[in-house]
Structures are given as structure tokens and as C-alpha cells.
Amino acid sequence: MAWHQQQPPLIVLMEDPIIHTDEHPLCSIDPTCLCHEDPELISEVQAAVEQGLITPEEATLIIQGKTL
Questions:
Q1: Do residues 50 and 56 touch, judged by C-beta distance below 8 A?
Q2: Which of 22, 28, 52, 61 is in the most buried spot, having the most CB atoms within 10 Å?
């Protein structure tokens, strides 16, 4: 058996840093990040729902960090 068939492949973890910007204050990388529990950020998302800019479903995804 050849050497390459005996060795398991190497796993290389590729992680991006968690980024919080003024444009995207809620990160999408780590749903356990405390930014997703920040009352001020949540109220901004709620205001966008009240203004008709996003749907309640979109707001939920944004707060969960599943979309930007």
C-alpha cells in the first residue's frame, strides 16, 4: 500500500476573525457572540422592522447571525 493511502489527510482549519463594524454590528461568524444579546443592537433591528425595511423573519436571522 502506498504511503499516501495509509496517512489520513491533514485538516486545516480556516477561521476568519469576528468582525464588528458600524455597517455590520452583528457578526455572522459566531452566533454565541455577545453582540447577538446586545439590547441596543436588537432595538436597532426592531426599529428597521417597524419602519418596514425588513421583515420580522429577516430580523430574527440577523440577530441570530445567519445573515448580514
A1: no
A2: 28
Residues 16, 29: contact at Cβ < 8 Å?
Answer: yes
Domains of the chain by residue range:
23-68
- Single pTM value for the model: 0.65
Query: For the chain, what is the HEC assignment?
Result: CCHHHHCCCCCCCCCCCCCCCCCCCCCCCCCCCHHHHCHHHHHHHHHHHHCCCCCHHHHHHHHHCCCC
